[in-house]
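ARCHIVE CARD
Drawer: 12
Card no.: 0347
Subject: one protein chain, sequence and derived structure
Cross-reference: see card 0346
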Amino acid sequence: MSKILNHPFNVNAEAESDAADDLNIPVCLAENAPSDDVWSDAASDWPMSYESESEIEFNVVDDNVIDEFWSDALTETDTSDEQSVESAECLGEELRGWAIDSQVPQCHLNGLLGILRKYHPYLPKDSRTLLGTPTNYEVQQIAGGTMHYFGVEKGIRHILHQIDPLPKAIHLQVNIDGLPLFKSSNQQFWPILGLVEEDKTKQPFVIALYLGSKKPANVNLFLETFVNEYGKLKLEGVDVIGKCVDIKISNFVCDASAQAFVKNIKAHNAYHGCEKCTQEGTWAENRMTFPEVDSPLRIDASFINKDDEFHHKGTSVLTEVGIGMVSQFPFDFMHLVCLGVMRKLIGFWMRGPCPTRLGAHQIGLISAALVSFAMTLPREFARKGRSLVEVDRWKATEFRTFLLYTGPVALKDHLPNVLYHNFMLLHVAVRILCCPSLCLQYCDFAEKLLITFVEHFQSVYGNYVVYNIHGLTHLANDSRQFGALHNFSAFPFENFLYTIKKMIRTPTQPLQQIIRRLSEKASVRAKKRVFKDGFYQEHKNGPLPYNVTQFTQYKQYINGGTLISLSEGDNYILFNGDIHIVKNILKDKEASHLVCLKFQNKSSFFTYPIDSSSLNISFVKQPGQSLTIVPLQTVTKVILLQYKDGFVAYPLLHTA
């Protein structure tokens, strides 16, 4: 016993040789291992030596101490396990958000989880568990296709939880349109989308999604669930965090075909196809035309009573919930003006009859100007513009850019005066209606310009006053009711439809795929969506005016989605009617300012149909040399387009 007790590691010395054999220790090392005498000598040097078994019993550690030691050890282990689980949950949340935002395929995410589980065993094995992919959802057979209803209230709640402060009432825009899925198939989606006008992000959400080989066979069956839910919400509102929020549909944003389908009326190319007036169309040269500009207007009551029986195909279920079937269906700026009128005008200039067709040389010069403008357009323009040769591939935003900004400069001196003046009627009228500060004040004037454009269009281009051209005569009236044209355009909805289409990974069961992808996206923890306004990229490079030293200098400033920076294209502003180039951005605790150079020799760029200075559009030369300080909160961003020996300055009208 003494031999065992004197061994400092409490190992049976008699079993050492056998242990050496079991552990395959080389013989030379086993033979040279310390002898019992060596271990005995070493034990004598320890602070406490044991001479008898009685001493052992006297020096045994108290059982309570041992219990306390193991209790602390187990507590530390439990705490460590809890921290590991919490860490894995945080990691899983971040992985989920990353995978959904980046649309990572399941096979790739499964491979990543297999690697991460070696170090984070609490992570799930399968990507469907991580993403919360639903396995049970209802798909109805309805109106000749399949449909899943997500719900108005569900989408609104998700939006309202991210709006601060919570509004007392919200106004809902509804969009219905067809979305072809594949080039090799007739399969198409017909989604019902919603957008809360009080949401600054203008992010639509899906109310219902229909899949079929064509549009729904019965519009009332297609809309029935939506109408029933909205009727209930209209009366009761939505309870959000103990507060009742009223809900009202503001308008339906649809193109001409979708409007006719939803309202259950004749198509836009029918004799009684205009939704706004009772004019009977005229069939001429293989097209339906609407040459009159002063026909009696339709009203909601006359629509309900079906005073014009040739306008209707049946009764729409929307009438049951008090929707204004005329007043709440405005013309859509994107489809009517950008993809309709502007595309037709460019078509006349490139492929129309000889009196309106331009030569290849003029088209080349206009195209060169458009391409050169693309180099200096600011970041608010996702598509910078392309040559007229590629006009068949232009998107709606490119037609908008041409109409509102680049067109008047690129066409000047290359388009015959008669055609140019006709285009400028449209340009000025639409700019007025797109500007929030001008559309209400000068709406009557814009309406006169649009009517003049339509009348002049007939004399210049011939009998081509089709539905889109005629619709311009009613556009100002919609602006009176709903404000600037961008407030009720289909641009945000079209962007969202593109996002939905990208969610489809295989041609098999596209509806079920979208249901799963949207459910996964909804499972991500909602965050407050705010614009990242503020100052960025601090520097100390100047320039600074004389005796200005207390400010912090920055290179970028973002406000409501609009960027002002020191970079080319994003550094031009309008202040007190003058154009400035931004050279520095200053900020202190009390105020923010811009250090600028003011452009000299300002003059009007055009005088027909009004002087361009009335719209803050001007022609300027080179900037001066003296630095000036401008208050940041009172400026408007402008676009500078080179023309001859100077620049044409256009105030920016949109942020996306």
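Annotation on reverse: The first strand starts at residue 140 and ends at 142. The chain has five domains: 2-58, 63-131, 135-254, 333-488, 534-651.
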